Amino acid sequence: ILMVLISIQDKLVYKPSSVSQGEPGAHGFDAFDDVELTTDDGVRICGWLLRVSNDKSLYSNAPTMLYFHGRDKNASFRLKKVKELLDTVGCNVLLVSYRGFGESQGNPTERGMVLDAESAFEYVKSRKDIDQSKLWTYGESLGGAVAMSFAHAHQSELQGLVLENTFTSLLDMINRVHPVLTPVRGLSRNRWRSDLRMPELRIPVLLLSGLRDSFIPPRMMKELHALATASAYTQLVEFPGGTHNRTWRC
């Protein structure tokens, strides 16, 4: 039983889907580029650079957000949400499906998804029409752990980090969501230790917490906020009506 639990851990953590919610044009985007990247370990991942305008003088001066989605479905299911973010904030958004999600190849693991984030960042840095002094990162749910890991490694190149309804660590979530795995959680290859990275983060951090989140306890967002002791600026914004997937609508 122990070996079975260890072997299926990735399937319990990640819930990818190849079903598409359509291209950006179907969600109101007029300016976007299809993106296909090859990671350092040879995996092809796909997504889009969603721009605020086709006018280079506008999008090249706008901030750019690297957006990391949650554990289920794929990037196309976030297009509606990202459209509102783009319109409200006025930023370009790079949105990529992790390996194993959507049209991206491979299978999701913590190590692999860290490489996916690195490839996404290398792509943004290769774009001479993107202002490299205005780069941010945003992570929702599991994507918050991806964004945290990425931001921790690239603090000098980012203006800030936004976290939405994310957890302290995957080990803490195992206790909550899959208690049967608690005795073997130390053997998990997926750890996502945001609780260890947050105290070392110096860049500004904005935490968006839905108080009606029934999946990730809001207390975890409070714990992360309390751990942001080295950050230049940190703010926890709580939304009384916010659920796990709908805080952005509040």
From TrEMBL:
One cellular component (GO) term of this entry: membrane
Pfam family membership, one: Hydrolase_4
Domain Serine aminopeptidase S33, chain residue ranges per copy: 64-184
Coiled-coil spans in chain: none
GO MF entries: palmitoyl-(protein) hydrolase activity
Annotated InterPro entries: AB_hydrolase_fold (IPR029058), Hydrolase_4 (IPR022742)
Protein name: Serine aminopeptidase S33 domain-containing protein
Organism: Erythrolobus madagascarensis
